[in-house]
Structure formats: structure tokens, C-alpha cells
Design goal:
251 residues, alpha/beta, TIM Barrel, 8-stranded parallel beta barrel, binds 2-phosphoglycolic acid
Amino acid sequence: MRRPIVAGNWKMHGSRVENARLIEALTAQFPAESAAQCVVCPPVVYLSDVGRLLRDTPIELGAQSVCAEAQGAYTGEVSAAMLKDVGCTFVIVGHSERRSLYGEDNVLVARKFAAVQSKSLIPIFCVGEQLAERESGQTNDVIARQLDAALELCGAGAFANAVVAYEPVWAIGTGRVATPDQAQEVHAFIRGRIAARDAKIAAEVRILYGGSVKAGNAAELFAMADVDGGLIGGASLKAEEFLAILAATRR
Ligand code: PGA
């Protein structure tokens, strides 16, 4: 059985005061019986702070990005070892905003995936197609290229300790969520692509859906056979909404 995960990607939002308020609200109402794993990914500058607030809670800490290099003269960058040092257990790599706004290509994302794993952190490896790619029937090709870059660099074995997030770019922050069938189709494709190299690992890897997930649409997405939870942007900034999404995961 794959344990569901709900991860909140706060993006570039929050402040010390707002973060403390959000964590307080999340922990105060956190369901004692939650079977799902819950992660929040604040901006890097707040990781230590939020990590302290999460101590002795079931909520885990994740980062939104990482440098592919281990250490050295990389002004402005943060290494996987540093993220581990401040208490992260997860790191998002290859988010579409990193790919499209900061020029991260498949090779760089795969190197980041490797850097995260080299420190025994769990990558949340994002893949997803743009609207034009979907409309021209290229969804599977795009996803295959994104996935294969990591499979080729690290091998299928690396996915034993990784989470994949399918995030159609046209659904991120747009309110236009993929239908459960659209999500399931791509999730099954991702699992199949990994299965072609290692069926056991593919059966166990958790694949999250991301893109306009809300309390009102989470349950129908999470009910799909290959959807193991969600990567949540906007709705992760509201405690009630985020907890309702967590409650919508499979038991
Ligand atoms: P959204 O973002 O939930 O606001 O659409 C999802 C993401 O970018 O991970």
C-alpha cells in the first residue's frame, strides 16, 4: 500500500508572523488519525524557523528548490546538505516555475534530483506539459523526456526513495484543474514508464497530482488508482483548506 502524501508548496508567500499563524492553525486542527504524510515547503529563508515550529508535530519540512552542486562558489544557492542541516526531509525539484522562469532544463533537474538523493533527502520530482503541448498531442512525449532524464542519470532504483508530482502547467495557479481521468491517464503513463525499468519500484512509487487542487476537488482526484496525493500551491496557504485536502486522501 502506498502511503498518501499531501505537500504544500508555499512558493514566495509568507512572513514570520504569517507562517507562525499558519503552522499554529495547522497543528491545532491536525487530525490525530491521519494516515497520510503531510509536508510543508516554505521559502528557503524561513526553513529553520518553520522547522522549529514543526518540532514534535507530524508535519514534515520540505524545500522548494536546491542547487545541483554540493558546495562552493555558487552565490545565492543552497545545497542539499544545508537543507538537510536545517531539518528538511523533502525537496521539490523541477517545479514548472523553476523550469519556465529560471531556465531549468531536464538535465539540470535530473542533477538536482541526484543531489537531493545523495543526502538521503526525498525529491518531489515535478513533471508536466504546457497547454500547447497537450493540445498538440505531445503530453506523453514531454513527460517521458522529463522522467527519462532522471531515470538515465540515477537509474530506476533511485525512485525507491523519491516522489513524482504530475503538474500540468496549464492547471497550476489557474483554477483549471485536470479532470480525474486526465490525471489518472498521465499517472498511469508515469508508473508504466518506470515499470519498464523496474516493476516493483514502479508499483511502490508515490505519484502526486498538482495544479489547482482544492478542498472541493481533492477527493475525486485522490480516488483515482494511480493518484497518491497532491502537491498543493495556493490552497496550502489556508489551514482549513489544506487540512480538508489532507482529509480527502485515501485511507
Ligand atoms: P496551485 O499550484 O495549487 O496553486 O495550482 C500547484 C503547484 O504549483 O505546485
